[in-house]
Fold this sequence. Notes:
Layout: H1 3-9, H2 17-42, H3 55-76, H4 82-103, H5 108-125, H6 128-152, H7 160-211, E1 215-219, E2 225-228, H8 230-236, H9 245-248, H10 250-262, E3 270-271, E4 278-285, E5 293-299, H11 300-342, H12 348-376, E6 383-386, H13 387-401, E7 407-412, E8 419-422, H14 424-441, E9 449-458, E10 461-468, H15 475-478, H16 496-506, E11 510-515, E12 521-526
Parallel strand pairs: 7-9
Antiparallel strand pairs: 1-2, 1-5, 3-4, 4-5, 6-8, 9-10, 10-12, 11-12
Amino acid sequence: xxxxxxxxxxxxxxxxxxxxxxxxxxxxxxxxxxxxxxxxxxxxxxxxxxxxxxxxxxxxxxxxxxxxxxxxxxxxxxxxxxxxxxxxxxxxxxxxxxxxxxxxxxxxxxxxxxxxxxxxxxxxxxxxxxxxxxxxxxxxxxxxxxxxxxxxxxxxxxxxxxxxxxxxxxxxxxxxxxxxxxxxxxxxxxxxxxxxxxxxxxxxxxxxxxxxxxxxxxxxxxxxxxxxxxxxxxxxxxxxxxxxxxxxxxxxxxxxxxxxxxxxxxxxxxxxxxxxxxxxxxxxxxxxxxxxxxxxxxxxxxxxxxxxxxxxxxxxxxxxxxxxxxxxxxxxxxxxxxxxxxxxxxxxxxxxxxxxxxxxxxxxxxxxxxxxxxxxxxxxxxxxxxxxxxxxxxxxxxxxxxxxxxxxxxxxxxxxxxxxxxxxxxxxxxxxxxxxxxxxxxxxxxxxxxxxxxxxxxxxxxxxxxxxxxxxxxxxxxxxxxxxxxxxxxxxxxxxxxxxxxxxxxxxxxxxxxxxxxxxxxxxxxxxxxxxxxxx
Length: 536
């Protein structure tokens, strides 16, 4: 068979199990036909049918057909192209039927009916051109057998009209089953595509739910936990007991039962364990008439941070629009205060009040500048910066403004440069905030501040440690240092460290508080190395 013809017959891939299973049952039916034909031909004449016209031809064709049927059945499991197998099997069926019809003219209608099923089955599995070709081949075989019989055996009493009607039946069944097969294949392909799309969507939904920062639980009507995403498992912890909500979180189970009975939820946050974070549970039925309940566990810390972010964003937009309205009268008040201080007619008591007014104006202006710094959120323009050289220049510039009684400021580091990637303007702001805090709060009573900028490499990244020798930060306050508006000073805004950390994050850096065992405080700024942002 030519290679191009075989390639056109490869309708199904070798791994298509559905069509291969259909061909397997078709091959079993072919074996049954061959066995039945052999039984008829090898049975003594007169038992099942009358004596054959050509006994030897019929018996030989039946035996060959039976052997060929077993070979075709074995071929199904050899992972060969299915189209070629179907076409070859149909040709063998037609040839065997034509020979059997010539040998057994009395059984010709029955043989033709059995061949009708073979032609339809082959057309079901083949493209329409080859399916119709099979029907035409079967019709031609019956007409050819009639011509053979007329030329060799003039006493054939079966009319030509019978052969023509069977030929029309072969063509009709081939066309109908081929259309049916094509619709079945298209429906199967569409179902597989839809199934693949649904499977992809299910995986995406599962991934989204699993990675949600909100805990999600699916609890059935008996209180058993059917599903739990990663956030919920982290909040509930691992339990050796049966996955029962009443055992894993009794208070949560009680609130769910209260919601089911009364239809209202308790909005008070609850703690699922001694070391677990507080959560705010929300409940929803999976189906309107079902008993399964979806439980959403919102971490109150995340909710608070989102609320803070929204508050800060709103505050930033609001302050940007009112900045000029606030700063203009503030500047006028400050300027008028300075003029009054220069007047000789002001008493000492009033002069003290003017100083207080001037200080409060400066403080108010600092608050406005801090809030505007949050609103601006300028994008970082990272550059190659030698961290050690930058720290030395910063200290030299800062010393020029530093009063002797305020304390000392120095740089510690090796002789080798420490390269990093950072926006110099942002680094200047971060270090200014850290050094000002260290000079202001990092001192013991009646002792000057001693602040050190230690430049080094920590965990493979360039780092600056801003340390002082003060009393340190209480453990209760350390966890809230970088929260906006948190301050222990009457004159502070609580925004300095928050802005410093936001600037560090904009530069792919981290700013953390590190306790010092010997006393004092340390704020560590870990920056990106020169190769961290280099293109791959």
